[in-house]
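Hi R.,

Here's the chain you asked about this morning:
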Amino acid sequence: MPRSRLMFRSLFWIVSTTVGLMTLSAVQADDASPSKSKFVDHSLLVAPEFPCTWPAHPFPRFQINHQRVIGPESAYNIDTLIIDGNTGTQLDVPPHSVARPDLKREKSGPYGLSYTDKIEAWQFGGEACVVDVRDLLDQAGNGISPLVKPEHVERFEKQQRPVRFGDVVLFYSGYSDKYYRPFPEGSRFLADVVDRKAPGYPDPDPDCMEFLGKRGVMNLGTDSASMGPMPDLAEPTHYAGLKYGMIWTESATNLGVLPPTGAFYINLGPKHQGGPYGAGRAFSIMGGDLPAKLIASAKAKRAIDLSPTLATNLPITSPGIGAGEHRQVYLKLDFLYSEYLDMWHHTHLMDAMAGTHLVPPAFALPPEGPAPNESPTVRGWLQEYEKKFGKRGTSSVTTDKVPLDWTCGPVRVIDVTSLVGSLDKSKWPESPEITVAHIEAAEKAQGALKPGDIVLFRTGHLDAHFKPSPEDKGVWLDPLAGKSEGWPAPGPDAIVYLKSKGIRCVGTDAPDLGGVNQRRALMTYWALGSHEMVGVEFLHHLKELDKAPNGYFLFAPLKIRDCHGGPGRAIVLY
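And here is the predicted structure, written out as tokens:
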């Protein structure tokens, strides 16, 4: 975390098996069978009434704005976010404390350039080694952190095994489980510690970081609000670990569900350019054969990053069709300067669907209750859709309620690049439609789709057109304006077919799954939502998956309450 706020968040206080869809099930159903793998959520719920942001001036508070809702002016629920990297469960990377090499300062080093968009995908995950330090909880004075020392790790090693490269060492104190609550009770989580009204959260000291660094451990996590002990060891502890090239999770939660070793743990977050830290989504997979396979892949550095970088000069949000229809452009807002690091801490004002993101059912479906007053055009399209596919339905399944196992699974790439250039210019603006026939042809060549597969449509669109301004028009502007062909996109028939095969999640390396035809796009999203399916949009480099025929897709959006989108990062381990 930044020097001025180096102690930090925690994770969600209720992850329990009874929460179900509403909190993304801590341990999802079917855990009676030892042959099944189970997903465990380690992320705090991000919402304005929770202590999810650093409480000291000038750190900005999290905000979500439901900018448009389904009604006469919009066919979709559209949100914008003000969110900085110190929000909820988060990821720290070396430039948080390691200065750039060109600054030639005492703490300069090559890892001073290892921003969130530069960390290689394999490093985000590994085998969870849960170091139980619950005996330290609340065992210090107000504003003072009980210290996790090398002896605590050695105690774990005597009981389990030595820690090593490929492990994610997780310090489990129960802090976030106990103290992450809505305000005013939530002040105990962080603000009361900063104000010296309550005991600090347990954290490792610099000697512990040195111990782990010399063992080759490159990934850590804590269920404390920060990896920085209060009141004065935050920066020394950060630097002691980050100088080794470590990354770590702050404000994890629900670590007590995990076994001491054997589970696969990962923290994924949006790929902000030049980010010294970032909000993330941490989760584990335990039980069955899957964890060991993913652990081996990460340790062998067999990983492919499928998410483009987020930057202000890149075309990562939709400009819409017509004046006033654009989504919130992505903005990086500086608010605090670190002279030593020559770096501004910053927050982001962004559309909830900037870059790689989730499409939850509630994006295109209205909530239960009176029918929305939609435009005559949309009502006509709805009558046409319902005549063929049945009632559109309703949904309250926002991003925070989508189960983790919906967006992770064996990857199946369906190559539809043959559709590129298939439309006559007289039909523009239009997108070639991915049909049931295209999917069946892929199944005939590659084998039938199986329930739980993650289907990714490879169009090649972002690979060809994702360029910085002013060469950025090929992604959105030209196709939407009819100056070039739109990207291939599935129609509602294809979505219904995929659901019949047991598919929950569909992805694309195009800007979205809808395409440029507004009528067909809306029907595609209605079909997704009505069939309890989700989308992952704005991927790239799907060609790289040719070398990963048995790859496993991992994606989870930031856990933002009531959000109708969800930024995140997608990777494949193979």
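One quick note: The CA atoms of residues 360 and 498 lie 16 Å apart.

Cheers,
M.
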